[in-house]
Amino acid sequence: MKKFMQEFKNFALRGNVMDMAVGIIIGGAFSGIVTSLTDNFINPVLNFITGQTSYTANDILGFASSFASAVVNFIIMAFILFCMMKALNKAASLGKKVEETAPTTKICPYCKSEIPLDATRCAHCTSEV
């Protein structure tokens, strides 16, 4: 059972699965903006041009308010999703060890210049190190 849970964790937290989930959620939230744009701007303009209805200033302000509300909802959703992904990435990196790289250079004790680790003489001051 423990191996099964580890395999599921590796699958679920893989980068491409998480990216796909984020894309689906953001796409769903963005569809609200597109729907609001269509319902609150494009359709009323087409109805006005064809003479089917007339709009008052309050109607236009209501359309703009509805569209602004959809944009704010999208921004809030994106921000919450960003915070969740940041927390998940932080949690996933907690168990990983940071690999330390071995130094490839050293400092000459005489002239304080940087020289290769396996050098026997300093290239700058020619002293033996």
Automatic annotation (TrEMBL):
Bilayer-crossing regions: 21-42, 62-84
The keyword Transport appears for this protein: yes
Membrane topology: Multi-pass membrane protein
InterPro entries listed in its UniProt record: Mechanosensitive_channel_CS, MS_channel, MSC/AndL, MscL_channel
Single GO cellular component term: plasma membrane
Keyword ATP-binding part of the UniProt annotation: no
Highest taxon of source: Bacteria
Annotated family: Belongs to the MscL family.
The protein's name in its UniProt record: Large-conductance mechanosensitive channel
Biological source species: Faecalicatena orotica
